[in-house]
Design goal:
The protein has two helices and two strands, in the order ββαα. With about 50 residues, it is an alpha+beta fold. It has a two-stranded antiparallel ribbon with strand order 1-2. β1 and β2 form a beta hairpin. The mean pLDDT is about 85.
């Protein structure tokens, strides 16, 4: 919990960040990376296939 010392608010690094990134951040990263791979694969298949 944040405390006040000599007129300043003192917080731990976790409190200052408000929270640790949870599994939702990992899921978002995985889904967006997967979509990027699929889109780039489709573009390659359509334009650069020999």
């Amino acid at each position: 919990m944040a405390t006040k010392q000599r007129g300043q608010i003192v917080e731990t690094p976790t409190e200052a960040r408000s929270a640790e990134p949870g599994p939702s951040v990992l899921a978002l990263l995985a889904v967006s990376t997967g979509l990027a791979v699929l889109i780039l694969g489709a573009v390659w298949f359509v334009f650069f296939r020999t």
